[in-house]
Amino acid sequence: MKTKKKFKWLKIIRNIMLFVVAVLLIVMSGNSVMTMYEHKQYPAWGQYVEVKGKKMHVYTKGTKGRTIVMLPGLGTAAPVLDYEPLLNELAKQNKVVVVEPFGYGWSDLTNEERTVDNIVGELRSALQQADIPGPYTLLSHSASGIYSVYYANKYPDEIEAIAGIDITLPQAVEYFKESVPGIPAYMSLIAPSGAARLVTYINPSDFLPKADEGTYSDENIKLTKMITAWKAYNKDVVKEANEMEHNINATKEMTLPPNLPVIIFTPKIDKVTEDGKSNITFYEEQLKNVRTHQLIVLKGHHYLHWTHYKKIADDVNAFLSASLAHPF
After folding, report:
1. What is the pTM of this model?
2. What's the rounded Cα separation, in Å, for the pair 67 and 87?
3. pLDDT tens-place values along the chain, 328 residues long
4. How far is CA 131 from the centre of its chain?
5. Which residues cross the membrane (predicted)?
């Protein structure tokens, strides 16, 4: 009797597992079909260039003034869409370029390691293939500050200024005595499994800019949800996050070049260590040997360009006009 009951429960558990697997397969298949359809219906805004045998998306707006190249923060699924309000403002006086790295936006995935050297090399190749000559002002957000510092140190003739939005700099780990976080490998299944698509429907606020109404258009928001379903925490992003400690170690001897104009935007102090260190004191320390610099503190969160895009654009324009008016 007990044996029959045991087999009965095993059969129920087996059927439940088969049902779950069937549902997962249906969701994954549906997600794959939707992704292929969306790629055809919503083509990239800019041009594709070939880098290491893969397609990289380069979006350009504006034709006059200086060339500003915008680099996204780690895991920002759709950089062109995320930056759109800020790039629209900057493009009124500059040529603005967003190169979406592999694993981001409309760009392909890659099997290349996500080392700082590879990422910067791919960025340079994309700019060259798109026939966008320098010198460039690199405008970085968050972790891409590491790539800006590396680029400026390794190819100084190609960079004329750096602008940073709450950027990560390689000295931060030692300064704050913090470890570098990573992302579990299983997170790379979120997009291909269809889980990211489900979450964008169930709780879209987790993936959308927290900005005033009207800052981002309905079309932008729709496309941001769509590309999040394609690219959220994909394998390239996960590998990049887990390569960050190596990339910081590779650049920790590199500083912001003294003769390069640098402007940094940072949120007001939200955390102070026991010995009085904060994001503001850190940036002040990094900028003290930079001949021409400006540190601007704004009320807001890590993605300051969601709410302060007009001020950031005005301040960047004013800073570049003043600091690059006369050669060093």
Report:
1. 0.89
2. 12
3. 555 555 555 555 655 555 444 445 455 556 666 777 777 888 999 999 999 999 999 999 999 899 999 999 999 999 999 999 999 999 999 999 999 999 999 999 999 999 999 999 999 999 999 999 999 999 999 999 999 999 999 999 999 999 999 999 999 999 999 888 889 888 888 888 878 887 887 888 888 999 999 999 999 999 999 999 999 999 999 999 999 999 999 999 999 999 999 999 999 876 777 788 899 999 999 999 999 999 999 999 999 999 999 999 999 999 999 998 744 3
4. 23
5. 12-30
Give how far the C-alpha of residue 170 lies from the chain's centroid of Cα atoms, to the nearest Å.
17
Kindly list the distances between the CA atom of residue 177 and the CA atoms of 171, 201, 274, 277, in Å, as whole numbers in the listed order.
10, 39, 12, 11
- The helix/strand count (H/E) of the chain reads as 11, 8
Using CA atoms, how far apart are residues 139 and 197, in angstroms rounded to an integer?
30
Q: In what order do the strands lie in the sheet with 136-141?
A: 47-51, 54-61, 95-100, 67-71, 136-141, 159-165, 262-267, 293-298
Tokens of residue 113, six digits: 């390691």
Q: Which two tokens stand for residue 246?
A: 């190596």
Nearest to 230 by CA among 31, 30, 8, 9: 31
Q: Based on C-alpha coordinates, what's the Rg of the chain?
A: 22
End-to-end distance of the chain based on CA atoms, in angstroms? Answer: 91
Residue 62 Rama label (left phi>0; alpha psi -120 to 50; beta): left
Helix/strand/coil for 58: strand
In the chain, helix, strand, coil percent, each to 5?
50, 15, 35
